[in-house]
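Work package 3, deliverable 3.1, input record:
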Amino acid sequence: AQSVTQLGSHVSVSEGALVLLRCNYSSSVPPYLFWYVQYPNQGLQLLLKYTTGATLVKGINGFEAEFKKSETSFHLTKPSAHMSDAAEYFCAVISASGTYKYIFGTGTRLKVLA
Amino acid sequence: DAGVIQSPRHEVTEMGQEVTLRCKPISGHDYLFWYRQTMMRGLELLIYFNNNVPIDDSGMPEDRFSAKMPNASFSTLKIQPSEPRDSAVYFCASSLGRGVRTEAFFGQGTRLTVV
């Protein structure tokens, strides 16, 4: 069975500072990994995904994440935070073997300070 | 494509009433998911379908909840009778579910308030 742990339910950064949101997964089979963002009163929007190939993946709005199998991690980063990045971020995992059952983490609310 | 469409966006109902939430997935997607989001429990998977067939309903909280997918373009989540603790945002999502083209696309959600 798959599971996802997001460390830190709330993260605050200053505008222009590095954003680092942590995600660790557990999976007995090769995983597909995702980061989603949710703005207030909206649905979840895909930021980026890892399926196969290059372990450093780039997404929208300047975000990127690196799949590290040895650390079972898929942390989300952005070099310079912008006020518009304030939102809730969710990490998710599914099995690459085809059950397509998405398991989400508990989310991390990012606050950007002026 | 217009994306995943959910209706209504907001629903306020009295305890004991039947509530039906509706979802139209993206055309061509094989998988449909129903999630519930609350402050206390986060994002919970209630049930998901593959080609209109329910695959896993282990997340459905109790018999008061039921979901159907009569065809590839429509699904419902019904709560009967509703209770105040059912108040939450309910999301529908769909995905192609083929190889690497597997990300889920979410609707805007239905905010349910049971009073």
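The mean pLDDT of chain A is 92.
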